[in-house]
Every structure is written in C-alpha cells, then in structure tokens.
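Ticket #4471: structure export looks truncated?
Reporter: QA, pipeline team
Priority: medium

Steps to reproduce: submit the single chain below to the structure queue and open the exported record.
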Amino acid sequence: MKRILLLATGGTIASVQGKDGLTPGITDKDLVGYLPENNEELLLHSMNLMNLDSTNMQPEYWLEIARTIYNKYDQYDGFVITHGTDTLGYTSAALSYILQSLAKPVIITGSMVPIDFDGTDAKKNMVDAIRFACENVCGVYVVFDGKVISGTRAVKVRSKSDNAFMSINYPYIARIEGSEVVYLTNIPVRKSGPLKLDTSICSNVFVLKLFPGITPEIFDYIKQSFRGVVIESYGNGGIPFEKRNLLPKINELIEAGVAVVITTQCLEEGTDLQRYEVGRKLSKKFIISSRDMNTEAIVTKLMWVLGKTSNLDQVKQMMETPIANDLQQIQENNYVVL
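Actual output as written to the record:
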C-alpha cells in the first residue's frame, strides 16, 4: 500500500466565489472529498498548510512546505502539493534546491478552474498527481494537463487554458493516460539515503527585463539594494553597448560584489554569449551564463546559492553546475512534443 500525503496551499484549485472575485476558501479535506474513493492500494492523508492565492506566495512559504515534507518524510512514500498556478513554477524549482537528495516523489499540481466549478480540470490534475506520486521515482515534478514536467523546467505559458504549463528546454518526463504512466525519458528511480533540508536562502535578488531605451542608472539602484540580479537580455544574451551603454554599470555591479546572471527573454533555446559581439563584450570572468535555464529556476537557484556564499567565483560555479535537470547543453531533436 502506498502512503501519500497531500499538502494544500490554496490557489485556484481551492477557490470559491467571494465578493471581490475568486479567493481560496476550500480546505484539504474538501479537496480530498472530490476525489474518487481511495482504492485498497492507496492510503491518502492530507494537511492544510496555507490558503493563499499563489500571487502571494513568498520564499518563507517555500521553506514551510519543505520543512513539512522533511518532518513527514519517513511516514510517506510520496507527496502531492496543491498550489496556485501563477507562481507554481517558482515553488517547484525552489523545492528542487531546498530538498536535497530526495529519494521520493514530490508532485505539485493545481488547476485553471476551481474544483467545484463546472468544467474544472482540478479533479483530473489531482488524480494524475496522486497517480504519479505512487511511482518508483524521486525528485520534484509538476503534473498538469496529463503531462509530467521536471520541477526546474515548468513554465506557465497560458493564463486561461488547461494546458497552461510547458516543459522548457527539457523533455517531458511522462504523460498520464488514465491509470497508465507513459514515460518519455529516463529518470532516476528511488534511491536510499537521508533527505537533506537546505533552508539557506537569500531573497535579496532582482529581475530586470531589458527594453529599448532602458537607462544605465537603474543599475545604481540595484547595486545599492540587491546581492544578485538576473538580467533578461535580448536573444542569445545581447546587452546594449551603444548610446545608452549598460556595460560599465554592469561591471560596477560585479566590482561591488553583486552576482550578475544573464538570461534571455526568449523561452526556448537559452543563451550563447559567444555568438554575437553584443554578447562577447559581456562575457567576462564573473558574468554568470544561465544557458538554457528558465527564469523561475534561475531566480530560486540564485536565492539558494546566495544563502550559502557571497564569493562571486563560488556563486558562478554553483549557478553553472546542473542541479535537478535545471541546466544542460541543448541537443538537437531532444524534445518530446505533446
């Protein structure tokens, strides 16, 4: 018999109609009540951790979720987290770093329509998530719309449709067809060893999206206020260096000990700072290249790394070292289209 713990955190899946619109109001027990009768091969328990619209999710809540899993780890074979969709990708990535050496599955799901509304996708997503939590796998995964996505690769790309999430720059792990799990790539099976809870996080980071006309002075504020910055550049990693030249200010950030990560505004295929002049002018010793990571993983990984060190050499090394499938060299024909 598989023992699964469902942790409810709020979100659309648990929302009811309030006077000011949808708001989380359904408990874990209510959610479980919408599921089919448990079969004799499954023992499902639940807890209500919080009742948040995921827009209000904060790093402190990631730690609360992680600590709960850590404290209940020996009692269960797998964990399912119900979560709002807006920041679900950040939470799944964060848990991939905070929960080190996972030997069991941690599955995050949610819905685009509340569970007691007509046409809801919540029941299917919950059933699929519980089904995958019973698999002989380890790590953090997002289960949504019949797809299984590595926790560091899930990005919300649609605001209303059931197929709201995509796996970015990484193969889908599996698809779920009724009671069947069809694997699409090889993943680690369960392993022995103690779980490590790593809660050292520094949330003092900034995400800056470049746009034509952005002025260099914004970096003065960043230098005074933050320990790390993620710059969403153009294309392969281009940074403007004519007219409003950003490069001197970026160098000032590094000299001041601020970790600088370069990513791209493009969802697919990542950065290559060596391809164009606008990238090569930036490709210096302490610039951190995100390559094919998504912003959700970059932000949470940078928080996790800065919680351990402020040495820019070490920050760069840790950020550019793959963890939980967050970073890879892109290979042609390596993706599964669903």
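Status: closed, not a bug. The export was complete when the record was re-opened. Leaving a note from the reviewer for reference: The first helix runs from residue 28 to 33.
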